[in-house]
Amino acid sequence: MTAQRPVPMPSAQIEWIDARGHALWAEAPASAAGDTAISMLAILTDDTPLIGPSGAVAAGQVGAGRILTGPDGPRRVIWSGRRPLATGETLWRVRAGAFGPGRPQSDVVLGRAAFLRLSDPRLQPLIGGTTAYAPVAALADGVRIAAVRPPRPPGLVALATGDQAPIAVLGLDVAPWHPAQTGASGRGLAHLVPPLDCAAFATARIPYLTNAEAAGLREPWPRTPPSMLG
Question: pTM of the full predicted structure?
Answer without folding.
Answer: 0.86
